[in-house]
Specification:
This protein is of the alpha+beta class. It is built from five helices and seven strands; from the N terminus they run E-H-H-E-E-E-E-H-H-E-H-E. The longest helix has 13 residues.
């Protein structure tokens, strides 16, 4: 299945409603390096622990209005090092399951249905990249 999508820089996916941007170990490494921080410093300043019972996962913090912590008037301040979850949107499981679910996502993303035609192979590669980018887990019994 091929889909048309070109980001319109509307920033809706980065703002306006609560959500999670779960971070993998690689995301944490890239972002902390990009910002010139240790991984621990990065996690303390820019991430929040999300409690999943036996473990925590880390998500980017949000501002009080639910904007991503890295969203500025000019867009993403860490665009070059942004998490895989961000760089693969809207090519996520659930959204790409069918043409109708992809087009439905267009209700909140004006780039869907416009611009570049993404071939099935490209989409599958992005889906796999997102799947392989497992969220970093901190077990509660870990120090």
């Amino acid at each position: 299945m091929d889909f048309k999508f070109t980001c319109q820089r509307c920033l809706h996916c980065c703002s306006g409603e609560p959500g999670y941007v779960f971070l993998s170990k690689k995301d944490i490494e890239c972002l902390s390096s990009f910002l010139g921080l240790s991984e621990d410093e990065f996690l303390q300043i820019y991430a929040r622990k999300v409690d999943y019972g036996l473990y925590y996962m880390f998500s980017l913090k949000e501002r009080d209005n639910y904007d991503c912590i890295f969203l500025t008037e000019g867009g993403c301040s860490v665009y070059e090092a942004r998490p895989v979850q961000c760089s693969t949107y809207p090519f996520w499981e659930g959204i790409c399951d069918s043409s109708s679910s992809f087009l439905k996502e267009g209700d909140s993303c004006p780039g869907i249905g416009k611009g570049k035609v993404w071939k099935k192979e490209e989409i599958e590669a992005l889906l796999e990249k997102n799947k392989a980018n497992c969220a970093y887990i901190l077990w509660k019994n870990q120090k």
